[in-house]
Amino acid sequence: MWPIAAAGVVLLLAGASAYAGFGKPIVVTMWPKPYLSFGLAWLGLAALLMALGTTLIDSGPEALGVVFSLLALVCFAITLLSFFWLPRRLLPGWYRAWVDGGRSTGQASRWPKFGRGGRS
């Protein structure tokens, strides 16, 4: 299970950095939808929960393992949803401000290439 957990950590870190605002130009201009970069966090969380759930089913309390596995399925469903759309509540504040401001993806080129800085 450790390869799945390791991949989950990598995906969770990549998605969390998108939620935190690192690489805003990449997220805003991502094709076809910017929601895909936010979906990485949900996919990473699903992988971690599934690894934990299967480990608990194999060696610990099975009921708790089933609960973690069901939570992993919910996270995976959110990942699939992120291919097309994400509810406003699941979007980070900087992205909501970007969309509410009516800014185009061309304006993202004025942001610094790396880091959290830049206009929101």
UniProtKB/TrEMBL annotation:
UniProt keywords, alphabetically: Membrane, Transmembrane, Transmembrane helix
Transmembrane residue ranges: 36-57, 64-86
Protein name as it appears in the record: DUF4175 domain-containing protein
Lineage: Bacteria, Bacillati, Actinomycetota, Actinomycetes, Propionibacteriales
